[in-house]
From TrEMBL:
DUF6285 domain span: 391-427
Designated name of the protein: Phosphotransferase family protein
Sequence segments annotated as region (Disordered): 382-401
InterPro entries registered for this protein in UniProt: ACAD10_11_N, AGP_Transferase, Aminoglycoside_PTrfase, DUF6285, Kinase-like_dom_sf
Alphabetical list of Pfam families matching this protein: APH, DUF6285
Native species: Actinomycetospora flava
CDD domains assigned to the protein according to its UniProt record, in alphabetical order: ACAD10_11_N-like
């Protein structure tokens, strides 16, 4: 079966699976590295298509997401209404969901900075606490396909080790997590990706909880810690998504659940969330590197892992906001080098992507920014000193070094800051 990839190809496929009508205003949204999101109208009715990318079908996960959305709706959790779901054996050609459109904003930059959303930001952390308590109270029998994850740290460690690419900061964080596990609690339904960017917000508050593809049964404190991870603050200061405090979040949770987890247990899951995001970045990059799905977006995501590694060390106090991420200077042209130099050519292409390229849709404009970032990474990598060949990561993983020793901590700090200077030199001072 040929999978429709463009809007003109996809429109008739949607008409076929939805029983007729006229599809208009079909366009792909910029968000979503793991799944495609399209918005369209069917005879004027506004709908959203969420589907697996061609070549990377995950029918079990898509069916599980549909099951979660329906169960959450019955429990009063704000979610989009599922219109149709399929494992991909029809005209759309890949597993998908069609959902009712819900008005609201999900882009963190707008939610955190635009005046239009100022009223929504007030009290949003408390509201999210209440919603998470409702999710965690869902009857697991209502979502029987959810897998139980009894030892997420063990699973995450195995995935990290499988790449054979020790990163000093992550090994330090893994050791701390193993030594400071909070007491276990009864498993509950866990959203798995509840954070700023997967929440649709209206001017008066939360409109819908999106993206249930990572839902599972496990420790409910995972969702609370994940929401507090620094990656989801997008440059703003408040700990919960950039718009609220941990105290507000837990107070809202207690309003519905009757009690809330201990703050120290949530902190453990916050640090776990930083490590989890670093590993996810590398897993996503492997989809490109392994040939499953060739994607510049996924490839660049692999270099973002060091941001989360930095966040974990920041939470542990190994690095501090005062530690400078020294920008990599432009490489000087050697005598006799042809002009423009490699650095100058990269800057020229970056300028084209930023200032000259006329992109036709949101997705193209977004990918142009990703390409510009990729060129920046290449430029800084070329200008950086050659790596010293240190076996720091291997020795930390083997337990041969004590991360509490000042010299070891200094070496870990230097490793992370050096790689962050190449991947994203502004990240350390962003918030």
């Amino acid at each position: 079966m040929t999978v429709p990839r463009t809007a003109p190809e996809l429109a008739p496929a949607l008409v076929a699976v939805l029983g007729g009508g006229e599809v208009t205003e079909l366009r792909r949204l910029s968000a979503g590295a793991s799944r495609e999101t399209w918005t369209f109208a069917l005879d004027g009715r506004r709908l959203v298509l969420r589907r697996d990318p061609p070549g990377a079908p995950r029918p079990v996960e898509m069916a599980r997401e549909a099951e979660c959305l329906r169960a959450a709706a019955r429990a009063g959790v704000p979610v989009p209404c599922v219109v149709r779901s399929s494992g991909g054996g029809d005209a759309v050609g890949t597993p998908y969901l069609v959902m009712e459109h819900v008005d609201g904003e999900s882009l963190p930059g707008r939610l955190l900075r635009d005046e239009r959303w100022a009223s929504a930001r007030v009290g949003l952390a408390r509201e999210l606490g209440r919603v998470l308590a409702r999710i965690h109270a869902l009857d697991p029998q209502a979502v029987p396909s959810l897998p139980l994850v009894p030892d997420p740290l063990g699973v995450l460690r195995a995935r990290y080790d499988a790449f054979g690419e020790p990163q000093p900061g992550l090994d330090v964080a893994f050791r701390w997590l193993a030594e400071h596990r909070p007491p276990p609690v009864a498993p509950a339904v866990v959203h798995g990706d509840f954070r700023n960017g997967n929440l649709l917000v209206a001017p008066d508050g939360l409109a819908a909880v999106l993206d249930w593809e990572l839902a599972h049964r496990g420790d409910p404190r995972e969702d609370l810690g994940w929401l507090c991870a620094r990656a989801w603050r997008f440059g703003a200061e408040p700990a919960v998504g950039g718009f609220g405090s941990r105290e507000e979040l837990l107070a809202g949770y207690a309003e519905v659940a009757g009690t809330s987890p201990e703050a120290e247990a949530v902190r453990w899951w916050e640090i776990y969330g930083c490590v989890h995001w670093a590993v996810i970045c590398r897993i996503q990059a492997e989809r490109h590197l392994g040939g499953t799905e060739r994607s510049m977006e996924l490839a660049v995501l692999g270099r973002r892992a060091v941001e989360a590694e930095y966040d974990a060390l920041l939470a542990l106090g190994v690095v501090s906001p005062a530690d400078a991420v020294v920008p990599v200077p432009a490489a000087p042209a050697a005598p006799g080098t042809s002009r423009p130099t490699v650095d100058e050519l990269l800057e020229a292409v970056s300028g084209f992507l930023t200032d000259e390229l006329v992109a036709g849709d949101d997705r193209s404009r977004y990918l142009a920014k990703v390409a510009r970032n990729a060129l920046g990474i290449v430029r800084r990598e070329l200008a950086s000193p050659d790596p010293d060949g240190s076996d720091l990561g291997d020795r930390l993983r083997a337990g041969a070094l004590d991360p509490d020793e000042p010299a070891v901590a200094d070496a870990v700090r230097s490793s992370v800051l050096t790689r962050l200077a190449v991947a994203n030199p502004r990240y350390g001072s962003a918030r």
